[in-house]
Amino acid sequence: CADYAARLASHDIQPSMSRIGNPYDNAKAERFMRTLKEEEVDGQAYRDIDDARTGIGEFIEVVYNRQRLHSALDYLSPDEYETDLMQLRQTTSNAIHSRENCY
User: Fold this and answer.
1) In whole angstroms, how large is the CA radius of gyration of the chain?
2) Is residue 77 part of a domain?
3) Rounded to two decimals, what is the model's pTM?
4) Alpha carbon of 41 to those of 2, 46, 51, 54: distances in Å?
5) I need a labelling partner for 16 at 20 to 30 A (CA). Which of 29, 48, 99, 102 fits?
6) Environment class of residue 67 by beta-carbon count within 10 Å: exposed (0-12), middle (13-18) or buried (19+)?
7) Which domain range does residue 78 map to?
């Protein structure tokens, strides 16, 4: 444990660990890591560390952050959610402006 803490400190990294016996402290990060492993890393044969960085980076930026359905977004992809939100905002804005002309 001391070696681990020293290595983190040598890179100016602040350790972050959950409390003993409380798996909910880090649940979202743990769930993301599970998704990353299941949907990208497992079954991949990366040629080297650069290939792994590229593949994982593309998964995160393209698939996870844009295309993958998320339960927190009512099972829409982030892109679909953003599009729906922008349309709702435009509709609301138009409705507000049309009411202003009624008086």
Assistant:
1) 21
2) yes
3) 0.61
4) 30, 9, 11, 12
5) 48
6) exposed
7) 26-100
